[in-house]
Every structure is written in structure tokens, then in C-alpha cells.
Amino acid sequence: MRYDWNFSVLAPYAYAFFRGTLLTIALSVLSFVIGTAAGTLIGSWKPSGVAERVFYLFNDTVRALPPLVLLFLVYFFPVRQLLGVEPLSAFWSSVVAFSIAQAAYSVDLTRAALDQVPRNSILAGLSIGLTRADLWRFVVLPDLVRQVLPAQIAFFIGIIRLSNLASIIGCQEVVFVTRQVSSQAFRSFEPWILVAAIYVALVLPVTWASRLIEKSKWLKRRS
Amino acid sequence: MAALIAKGLRKAFSDTQVIKDLALELQSGEVLALIGRSGSGKSTLLRLLALLERADGGDAWLGQEQYLSEGIPTSAPFRFRRRIGFVFQDHNLLPNFTVLENCTLGPIRSNHIEKREAEGDAETILKALGVADKLRDYPSSLSGGEAQRVAIARALLMRPQVLLLDEVTSALDPESIEAVIASILKIKSLSKTDNLSILVVTHILRFAESFATRIAVLDDGRIIESLPANCFAAEAHSSVARSFIERDLRGWTDSK
Amino acid sequence: MNDQFDPVARRQPISGLSVFAIVVAVLALCVGIFGLVHHAGSNSEAAPDHWSKIKQSGMLRVGYGGYPPYTIVNANKSDGQVVSGFSVDLVNAIASRTSPPLKVEWHQFSFDSMKADLDADRFDFIADPVFMTVPRAEDFAFSVPYSYFGIAVGLVRANDNRFQTFSDLDRPGITIALAEGWTSSDFARARLTKPTFISVPVTGDATSQLDDVIAGRADVALNDVPSVLQYVRAHHGQVKALWLENPPSSVAGGFVMMQGDDRLREFLNSSIQVLQTDGTIDQIDKKWNSLGLFPTIPLQPGVGIRGLDQPQTRGR
Q1: What one-character-per-residue DSSP string does C49-116 give?
Q2: In whole angstroms, what is the distance from residue B10 CA to residue A149 CA?
Q3: pTM higher than 0.90 for the full model?
Q4: What fold does the segment set C50-148+251-288 form as a domain?
Q5: Structure ipTM
Q6: Burial of C296 from C-beta contacts in 10 A (0-12 / 13-18 / 19+)
Q7: Which residues of B touch A (CB under 8 A)?
Q8: Strands (DSSP E) along chain C, which ranges?
């Protein structure tokens, strides 16, 4: 028996898909930016002694949690009972949860990258009398960015694909819309083909950009 | 007047004591060449003096100001590092900056010189050293000799009071060595500071004799001998010095 | 930012950032412990009472999941008319009759987190006609039913004429697709022993379970009347529905709220009965062509209406 394709059932929901896509993008970008900023800052701090062990314990614990578990923990945390404030909406809960996940990854990445900054470049910078701030700005940061950029772009793509988990707690990103449309129209296949195409359209350009960057001269200027 | 004084310097790496109770005095305007066997601690000494390596003990003064006291460095090392020029064995140019930017970064950020003036100075010196056409190139596209000359320019442009050169020819092929040595000989004329004092570590005795005013011998973590350059070959009596002189007489120019 | 790069810079014994981080961590721990202790000691045992909050704020917070035609989610619009349907009209009818009229705020939820959302106090009650089952009665409080639903209605391919009644299904060699955890599935498993069952995990809607028939993975799919009927309409000509008008069983559906929220439940119960009596529910049913079963209230005139011609004397 043939499946009777009928993409016209999606037509009335065009605007809903558009809004859902925008929300997916917003969720992904916000989580990535906040998480990366926080993680890079935290990862730049090199603790020693007891602080170091506590630090790594924290980080490894957070990274052990699957994103969905993190999401539920944030969403259902009893803020009202414990702190007396209104709970966050599904969207902001998702942003918080994904930012935490991204921050944990960024901490590790930044820490490893900082250890790999060429010692010679540091000495060169010191020899021309650069202050600590200038050393970071002109020697460490350029090298750090070149090291982490390919991996961070990969994480960004990962977040775009993870964002669909937010649909489970009711955030109205594009997969949520798809499930809704599928339920309203009683058709499974057509909405999912559309959302697959949307994800491809979102992710593919980022992949291409990443490849371009990896091949660029700018990136190769490390040592 | 002494430009640089060090006393009682000590440095150990894991279990080996590399520098043992070393004393050194560099007079204003003089060129001191330091020779020694490989492993005698020449590079380490220079780095200790330039605050690029942590000393286990000792004192050091730049002019009248003390910047190392019983192994404890000053709390603002950058203030002294910008007055001590350093040229590394492997040029050590920053790879993500052009030649011009490498040369102007220090003057602009550390010495607070205007960008235009810094660039002008840089172009002048780079031209004098024969690498003016590489201004906008990145270090990866330079040959070893060219890069080393840029490194010399970079250090000079900081207008240091003291210039430290760490075996700057050892990593080069014979052709480049000529060009770099020629550049070094020009340093005094190019330098804008009066009475620039230079401490150069080398293993080419001939070069030391032609360029330096004094030659000192470093062995087993200490300075064991120090003589004016023009009478070094005749009067040096340590076994290290003699072996250098001998090799030089026999024409071996490039041996460590 | 510390001295991890400068070999010569002096290390401070404890950097400012470390101190700050430790202080923040300790504070957070204190807040957490205080909150837990406070919460455990005080009113966690008290029954929820949304009614006073509703009266005070003048606002009813209502949850909807999306179960056409009872709650139809308007995917395109975001405010105002986000949801429409039978249950929406019912809730609006109730809200408009309080004095002063209550405003209604709609919150979407998904069925897998129904209990958690209620417990987290995201809304006061759920408008969808949630099917009443004994296990659910253990966890939630139901209002009186406002509709009844036929369950275990069959969906087969259009040219499949093997089954006339529900008991025709009870034979070996038949594969039946069931929605995991749904009422029709529990009923089928209890009544049928011979067929093979495929249990399909579904969340808000049964489309994926019903798809199994067209896909050929099952001969029959069993579900409730609204789900099956609307699926047939959407896939016209490919499938047909069986025993729609005399389903083998039925369930009641009503509003759902937290256990112990008695005042609110009493309010909703009374309101439903009022709207049943005065025919509003009938009107809503006609408007939406709802796919549920409704009890009729046969009214008989009391004896006094047909009785004596003389006026009654007032009692003493």
C-alpha cells in the first residue's frame, strides 16, 4: 500500500514552524554564548591544592549528567518552595540547563587549550615587557581562540541538535511545533520531513563555515 | 658605572644544580661575551637575569635598582623586563603577528610610544638590518636568518639599557650566520640608548673576539675567568678557555 | 586570571577569586539548607488551596495539553486565541459566570509531565477531559465527569473486513497496536488473550500508534473515539473505524487538579452540574460536534405540577 503524501496539510502551520525555528535559533545561540563565556572564564582560573580537587569534582559531576536530566533538574527545581520566587519558564529553564552543560564542556576545553599555549610565545611576550593583561590579550587569547574554535563550533552544532529536548518541557521550539502539528493533523511523516529539512538548513552552513575556518591561514598561524 | 650586577645566583633543575653561586658585573657601554661548554648553564643564566626564569637565590640590580633579592623577584617584573632586551636562540617571534607588528607591539604597549613613531623606528631598523621587504609578512614565511634579524630588531626597538643575546646563531645554517653576525655588529650604531650594554652568549670565539670588549668563561655554574677580549687568547688559562682557543686556532667554527 | 604563565610572578597564597568562589558556594549551601529545613518544618503537609489565591487574583490558571476537539492548540497564534475547543468553551463559560468574572490564563503542558507540572504549581487545574482511572485517582483529584468516551474502538485498513465485533479480535495470528499506558490498551489486554500486541510508546497523541496499521506493522489499532475518528478523517480512503457507535467500553473524563484542593474541586463540580442542567454543555457539544458521550438528564415533572387546581395553602 502506498503512503498518500500530502504536504498541503502543513500549509496552515507555516507561521508556527517559522516561529518555532526562530525559537530554536534563539535557544541555541543564547545557551552557547552564555555557556561558553562562563566556561571560558571559569576555565581560565587555575586553582591549586584543595581548590583544584573541588573544582574538578564539580566540573566532572556536571559533565556526567545527560542534558535531559539536567533540563528536568532545572525545570522542576522547587524554587517556589525553597526560595519563594516564581519558577523560570520552559524557555529560560532550557537556556539555563544548556548553558550549564556548555559551560562544563568549555571549562575542560579552555583548561586544556591554555596548557597548550606555546611556552616560547609566553616568554617572547614577557621579554618585551608585556604586563599580565597585555600578555593575555596579545599572546594567550589569540592562541586560545585558534585552539578552541573548531571544537566550540562542533559544540554549537551539538547544542542546535540538543535544543529539541526542550520540547519535552513545553518550550515551543521547532520540534515541539512539529509534534503539535503532527497531533493536530493526525499525520506523522510530513511534519517530520519538514523539520528535518529545517535542521539541515540550520546546521549545514555552520558545518561549512567550520571547515573553511579550519583550513584558513588565520587558524594555522599558531606556531 | 655598572649597568647590570648579579650576586649569588643559584638555580637547580630537578636534582641538578645548574647555576651555583654566580656573580657577574656588566659595565655600562661594555660588550661582554660569555663562552662555555654546552650544559654549563649559559641560557639559564640569561633567563635568570631577564626574569624569564625563577631563581632559587641571589640578588640582581639593573643600574641602581634592585630587582632580585634573595631569589625573590620584584612584584612588578614587567617594569624591568622592558628595560632588558632579549634575543632568543630560536627567534621566538609571535606567529600570529606580522614582522612590523612584532616589532611595534612592545614599544606601543610597554613603553607607551605612539603607533606611528613606533612603526617609523621599526622600518628604519629593519631596513638597516636588510629585512625591510618583509614588513608585512608573517614569521612563518621568513628564513631562519631573516627571522633572527627581526628578533634583534624587536629587542632593540624596546630601547633597552641592557641587551641579552642567547646563542643567536646556533640554530642557523652557515649562510645565515654571516648576515646575523653582521647585524649584531651594527647594534651599537643602531641603538638609541647611550651606552647600551650587551651580554652575548656564543660559542664562536672569533666572533667574541671581534665584537666583545670582555670575554668571560662559564663553567660548572660559575664564572671562572674574565679577561679583556684583546688579550683573551693569550692569557686565558682555564682548561675550558684553552680548549675553545685551540679549536678556534684549528679553524673549527661551529662546535658546541 | 592568575600567574599561571609568568614563571617569576609571586603566587598569592589564596587569590581573590578563590575566596570569592568559596564564599558564593558557602552562601548557596546555606540558602539551600535553610530552605529545606524551613520547608520540611512548616506547611508541606497542608493541603493545597488554590481557591483563595484564585479569588484574590481574579485569575484562573488552566492547563491544556491538546486533545481535539476538546483542546485544540492554535499553532499559529501565540497570545489570545492560543487554544480553542469544547473544554475551552466550558472553562470560559464557568469563568464568565462568577462574580466578578474570572480571567483565564492558559498554560500548555505535555502529558508525560502532567503530575510534575501540577505539583510545581504551574496551573490550578487541567481543562482536557483526562480519562478517569483508579490509578490516576490515587494521584490526582478529578472533578465530576463532563463527558464520557468510548474506548477500544478499532482502526483497520479500508479493505479489511475480517472483524465485525470486538470479540472477533480474540484469535491468534492477529497483531494489535496499542498505545502504551492508555486506557484502551489496558482494556484490550484485560479482555483479549490470543492476539499479539505491539505496545507503542506515545506521548501527547496517538498518531504514531495508529500509523502502524497503514505501515503494515499491525492489523488493528485500538484507541478512543476522538483519536480514531479524527485519524480516519485525516487518512480518508485508506483506513476505516470499527464499532464507533457501540464501543465495547467507555470512560469518564473530567478536570484534573492536585489532591486535596477541595474548595476548587467543589466549585468546578457544582459549575459542571449547573451547565449540564441548563443545557450549556449541550450547546457546546452541538457547536463542536464533539466526539464524546453525554448523559442526558431526563426531567420528570413533579406531582405538584400536574396536580390540584386549587392553590396550595401555606403551611403554618
Answers
A1: -HHHHHHHHTEEEEEE--BTTTBEE-SS--SSSSEESHHHHHHHHHHHHSSSPPEEEEEE--GGGHHH
A2: 42
A3: no
A4: D-Maltodextrin-Binding Protein; domain 2 (3.40.190)
A5: 0.89
A6: exposed
A7: 50-52, 77-79, 81-83, 85-86, 88, 90, 92-97, 105-106, 109-111, 138, 140, 154-155, 158
A8: 59-64, 72-73, 83-84, 103-108, 125-131, 140-142, 147-151, 153-157, 175-179, 196-200, 220-223, 239-242, 249-258
Render pLDDT for A42-93 as a digit per residue (tens, 0 to 9). 888 887 777 788 888 888 999 999 999 999 899 888 777 777 777 788 899 9
**Who among B78, B93, B138 is closest to A124 (CB)?**
B93
To the nearest whole Å, the CA of C172 is away from the closest chain A CA by 24
Domain boundaries, chain C: 50-148+251-288, 153-247
In this complex, is the C-beta atom of B53 within 8 Å of any C-beta atom belonging to chain C?
yes
- Could you tell me which CATH number the domain at C153-247 has? 3.40.190.10
Q: What digits encode the pLDDT tens for the residues B4-42?
A: 999 999 999 888 888 888 999 999 889 999 988 877 788
Better pLDDT: A10 or A162: A162
Q: In a 3-state reduction of DSSP, which class is residue B227?
A: strand
What's the rounded Cα separation, in Å, for the pair C87 and C91? 6
Domains C50-148+251-288 and C153-247 share a fold: yes
Cα dihedral C86/C87/C91/C94 (nearest 10) = 60
What are the start-end ranges of the E strands in A118-172?
A: none
Question: Residue C110 and residue A168: Cβ atoms within 8 Å?
Answer: yes
Chain C positions in Cβ-Cβ contact with residue B52 (cut-off 8 Å): 7-8
Query: For residue C68, is the peptide bond before it cis, meaning its omega torsion is within 30 degrees of 0?
Result: no
Sign of the dihedral through C-alpha A14, A16, A19, A24:
negative
